[in-house]
Amino acid sequence: MTAERLTAIYHIRDDAGRIDARAAGIAVEQSVEMPVAAITDRGVLDDIVGKVESVRDLGGGVFEARIGLSVATTGLEAGQMLNMLFGNSSMHPDIVLADAEFPESVLDAFGGPRHGIEGLRKMAGAGNRALTCSALKPQGLPPEGLAKIAAQMAQGGLDFIKDDHGIADQHYSPFAERVPRIAEAVAATGSGTVYLPSLSGHLEQMRAQIAVARAAGLKGALIAPMIAGVSTFQALVRENPDMAFMGHPALTGPGYIAPPFLFGKLFRLLGADAVVFANHGGRFGYTPQTCRDLSQAALASWGGLKAAVPVPAGGMTLARVPEMLQFYGPDVMLLIGGDLLSAGPRMAREAARFQDAVVKAA
Amino acid sequence: MTAERLTAIYHIRDDAGRIDARAAGIAVEQSVEMPVAAITDRGVLDDIVGKVESVRDLGGGVFEARIGLSVATTGLEAGQMLNMLFGNSSMHPDIVLADAEFPESVLDAFGGPRHGIEGLRKMAGAGNRALTCSALKPQGLPPEGLAKIAAQMAQGGLDFIKDDHGIADQHYSPFAERVPRIAEAVAATGSGTVYLPSLSGHLEQMRAQIAVARAAGLKGALIAPMIAGVSTFQALVRENPDMAFMGHPALTGPGYIAPPFLFGKLFRLLGADAVVFANHGGRFGYTPQTCRDLSQAALASWGGLKAAVPVPAGGMTLARVPEMLQFYGPDVMLLIGGDLLSAGPRMAREAARFQDAVVKAA
């Protein structure tokens, strides 16, 4: 029997004359990480050492190497999976982890989103249309200040409100005081807006935060998997199948893991129901093609996994709503933060304009 | 009273005409992440919004921006600290988190290494000389195979043996079976070699692994903080002040966080007693200057923090021992993995040669 493998796909900037040796080197680095000639165990040689499946010239000095890695080495554990996919090779500035293809067994083991885009639409009572979201800011406000802003956004009828990812468990606004206060303020509007508080710290702290959120009647949370650690994220998703998780891009880096793979496949595989990413034309540098690839990956038919809803963000404005809906279609959650917050006393009205624009476009 | 700030130092590739606006943008992104004009709260404006302290031309199209960030926003929690230092800005390919300067309160709160280089020397009975280490490989071997290799390395008298970072909790070699077996094999040699098993998974899994290691009489462990999540790492250091922690570079990326800062300051601040990094002239691309800066940062006098021992690695050989000792001096741990493993049946003898070379150089 041949041991099961996943295929890791790297983009490597190197010379044509060196690329085969380079790919072979990555296959070793991402598996046994020692001279293969010194390995005497037949099982390790056959089933554990990485195998170069193909090398292909992509043009412009970049090559694609497809490398088969043993599924067994991942232990079907998220952190170890990332370690095997890119742990050491991440340190090479000329290698990008572009993609990976997983056998059915891996998809089944991780399970993907527990709710997915359809689950989020149901939570928000949104039919088949695009979803709306805003971000509670600024950090530094006490609980009552944030609750007041959240209430205004909810009065506008938004589907979702998430905490700014900078809002954590600071002394000026502790999670356990802040989250129930905001949840209450949102619920009091009767809008049905779903509020997603931001989780921070380690697994035990996040579990306590989820317990607080649950007690406040909330149905989901925001998490930055690359800061929390993907193992922590995986554990929370497993332990809380009734909660929805929105993945935040903090610390995802400058593209050394290709965003379409990281957000559209890896975060989705681990259970992100929604993935926030930097939309083109905002404060960050993703191209339209990257955004399209990312959203298509998040939504693509993939084994039995539910679709994760793409959440383009990062300096989006009301003025861009029609263009974004045209670009992404209805399977999207539009996130507008600062532009709504800038409306000050007119925030509820601006939120309603945002909501109307999305509802009417459906 | 002015709120306490840390200084985050970014290197930004941009045009001279745009750099001031760029720095101001980062100060906002890494703090309130919304238009400052829309903030009405005086306390947030004064104490929470990031402040550009200085911008300086470093030449070659790169500028240094020093930005004061509120210590309160970090909640003195490792993950949130990293989030505030670089969460969103990590996505810009033209920004590097080059360094940070922390007030005394931050150093005190995190505490740094519990053992440091002097503690590790005591554990290994090594006096004031450089330390030696090797890596147990390949993953894929069953516990008895790894125990046999570990015994050979220990017979050679090495100070430390660490698991390969790819060795986790896989079905072919579960942590709970493997680690006691290896610990026993190492102890049976009477060499006094300190064995550091590799931790994987989330906090709860790592706690269970540490309990196994402890029961096997072990005094430390290996952890990859960027995979585990820095919050998980911080928690383990706090909970296990008697255990030594070696930090592994998996997933540290292609330098988007400058290695001297990441390894020499951040991992040290969080409690790494030893920091493994990619030595120049090996399989990875760090320059001699990067390695020197990193090791100097890890060892520098820094508040009351103990020194972390730099562990240059990644394709090192016996032949390089004299050159590495000359480059790093005695405050170093030399890690040779594959080159020893390649010795096969002569492994114990080669390990002894490595140990002798280091002891005699002292």
Which structural class matches the secondary elements of chain A? alpha/beta
- The CATH architecture of the largest domain in chain A can be given as Alpha-Beta Barrel
Order of helices and strands of chain A: EHHEEHEHHEHEHEHEHHEHEHEHEHH
User: How much helicity do the residues of chain A have?
Assistant: 40-55%
The percent range for strand residues of chain A is 15-25%
Quaternary organization: homodimer
- What is the straight-line distance between the termini of chain A? 52 Å
Mean pLDDT of chain A: 97
Radius of gyration of chain A: 22 Å
- Report the CATH topology name of the largest domain in chain A: TIM Barrel
Major sheet of chain A: size, sense and barrel closure? 4 strands, antiparallel
Unreliable stretches of chain A, pLDDT < 50, 5 or more residues? none
Name the CATH homologous superfamily of the largest domain in chain A.
Answer: Ribulose bisphosphate carboxylase, large subunit, C-terminal domain
Q: What is the CATH C-level name of the largest domain in chain A? A: Alpha Beta
Shape of chain A: elongated
> Largest contact between protein chains?
A-B, 84 and 85 residues
The strand line-up of the biggest sheet of chain A is: 2-3-1-4
Set down the secondary structure blueprint.
The structure is a homodimer of 362-residue chains.
Chain A: E1 5-13, H1 19-29, H2 42-48, E2 51-59, E3 62-70, H3 78-86, E4 95-101, H4 104-110, H5 116-124, E5 131-136, H6 143-155, E6 160-163, H7 175-188, E7 194-196, H8 203-215, E8 220-223, H9 225-228, H10 230-239, E9 244-247, H11 259-270, E10 274-278, H12 288-299, E11 309-313, H13 321-328, E12 333-335, H14 338-341, H15 347-361
Parallel strand pairs in A: 5-6, 5-12, 6-7, 8-9, 9-10, 10-11
Antiparallel strand pairs in A: 1-3, 1-4, 2-3
Helix pairs in contact in A: 6-7, 6-15, 7-8, 11-12
